[in-house]
Amino acid sequence: MVNDSANLLHWDIFCAVVDNYGDIGVTWRLAKQLSNEKKIDVCLWVDDLRSFSHILPQLDPLLTTQVHHGITINLWSSPLAIEYQPGSVLIEAFACELPDEVKHALLTLHVQHKADPRLQQPPVWINLEYLSAESWVAGCHGLPSMQANGLKKHFYFPGFSDSTGGLLCERELFQRRDEWQNNPLNRMALFSQLGLSGINPQDTVISVFSYESAALLALCRLWQQSEQVIHALIPKGRSLNSLTCILPKPIDELNSGEQIHLGNLIIHVLPMTDQEGYDKLLWSCDFNIVRGEDSFLRAQWAAKPFIWHIYVQEEDYHLIKLDAFMQVYCNNLPPELANSWQALNLAFNQEQGEQAIKHWQQLNLVNLPLLQHAKQWPVDAINDVDLASRLVQFVKNS
Amino acid sequence: MKTAHELRPGNVIMLDGSPWVVQKTETTRSGRNAAIVKLKLKHVLQDSTTESTFKGEDKMEDIILERLDCTYSYYADPMYVFMDSEYNQYDVEAENLGDAAAYIVDGMEETCQVTFYEGKAISVELPTSVVREVTYTEPSARGDTSGKVMKPATITGGSTLSVADFVKTGDMIEIDTRTNEFKKRV
């Protein structure tokens, strides 16, 4: 029952899987970066190992503890099958509710340390929040959250300004991306490796990882009539749900690598890949449609134009978040281009098919300023210091 | 117990064994509809303030202190003076009113609750809604009557808020003091 690998310096990250790949995608990347670059022992607790295994195929969902990429991965069961050993940092990802055993352990340490400061103090407790470009984030980032029992937690907000927690990005990611994109053979090799046949080097390739949207169906109908061949790479899942009326058979009967020819549009059923594979896919496509938080950020790092399909919130609050990001992203774009790109994103998110078609046509994929902007944006956005580095510094200062 | 989302200026909460007056609340939304509440707090016993962030559903120990129904009398810098039904007067530091100060105006008729800690008046809680006169707002730009189009307006006392486009200067409006939002024209 005791986790022998635990030591006083390790960091624990707790992640409750809400949708399949978003929350776990972010926390898994963070865990890997803390381990690889900061040489921190990380223990990642996940409540749904089966979903996790889709982005980490080596993971055995039946094991309660295992090590991959140097990170201890524990099943977060209720009650915990693996005993929690407090380390130096405790991260609750995306405001997940920590297990009672963990909260009890924190309180015990707090009480003991208060009585005798020579005893171990509780770990630095951090709530890692969702990424948002809204202006209020800077005013909340890093603030303490005083608990009634005397424990203190901090809210850590990723974001796009100096006053926020920054953006998740590995140290050599841009270099690896550039090396990949500088050799056109890489993308063709990747498509082949993924079982996607019939793609010629000059063809337009679009990856699609969205929620359901009528605008996606409208765009597919437009692409059908395109003068040149367009390949849409779509995994089985929510994006395809929007396209059932143009698919020749039920989604359940589609297999990875299968092609559906619809005029000049060829839909390829994309197999699941690990995170490194997905990054390469984003680097290799001419345009990416992404969703949520993890793929949204990786699409920005891909230096390619994209549509962000944001997670829907009550009272259309997600549109405020979308607008906040678009304002930041378009800061240095020519107004006309910025307007088209923003209108396309808005139309996609509001399921306005005709508007999506109109603004897609205005945008024009070979638009050089948009491509140049997509390439410059990652450098500007990361602003010298990535999230993991800022987080480590934040912990040191706490 | 109250959730962080339910707190409002004037509430007193217990954190780590100390009482804190809520001076200001700001609610925003994180991903997946979760509310985040930023509080400005003043320690009741010490002259210190702090800002703290909470999940909207975090449970807070709301201290039940002695409270008295009072009406606002006058302002004597830096104190707001309130009076109970027996004409006893209580001074409350302006700073302790936080956002509530925006609605404390001469001649106001609403009954407020003055909160006491160890005999000292420490905060004031407003009724959940107050009626105030709009002292200035631009004329309606679009003739909208739906109430969905909003515009800024200044009310008695000088604070501003968003009101429906059809509201005119001189109108009396009802405001939700918990959210500082316009409710309706009265």
Structure report:
The complex is a heterodimer of chains A (398) and B (186). Chain A is globular. Chain A has 398 residues and is α/β, with parallel strands linked by helices. Chain A folds into two domains: 11-166 and 384-397; 173-382, Rossmann fold, CATH 3.40.50. Chain A has helices at residues 22-38, 49-55, 100-115, 136-140, 173-182, 184-193, 214-224, 238-241, 275-284, 294-301, 317-329, 335-349, 353-363, 368-382, 387-397; strands at 11-15, 42-46, 65-68, 71-75, 89-93, 124-128, 144-146, 152-156, 204-208, 230-235, 259-262, 265-270, 287-291, 306-309. An eight-stranded mixed β-sheet of chain A has the order 3-4-2-1-5-6-8-7, covered by helices on one side. Chain A has 15 helices and 14 strands. In chain A, β3 (65-68) and β4 (71-75) form a beta hairpin. Chain B is mainly beta and 186 residues long. Chain B folds into three domains: 2-62, Roll (SH3 type barrels); 66-125, Nucleic acid-binding proteins (OB fold (Dihydrolipoamide Acetyltransferase, E2P), Beta Barrel), CATH 2.40.50.140; 129-185, Nucleic acid-binding proteins (OB fold (Dihydrolipoamide Acetyltransferase, E2P), Beta Barrel). Chain B contains one helix and 16 strands. Chain A binds chain B through residues 18, 94-95, 127, 129-132, 134, 136, 139-140, 143-150, 155, 293, 311, 313-314, 317, and chain B through 13-17, 26, 28-34, 36, 38, 50-55, 58-61.
Strand fraction of chain B = over 45%
Uncertain spans of chain B: none
Which class do the helix and strand fractions of chain B yield?
A: mainly beta
CATH class of the largest domain in chain B: Mainly Beta
Q: Roughly how much helix do the residues of chain A carry, as a percent range?
A: 40-55%
Oligomer: heterodimer
Q: What is the strand tally of chain A?
A: 14
Q: Report the end-to-end length of chain B measured between terminal Cα atoms.
A: 34 Å
Radius of gyration of chain A: 22 Å
Strand order of the largest sheet of chain A: 3-4-2-1-5-6-8-7
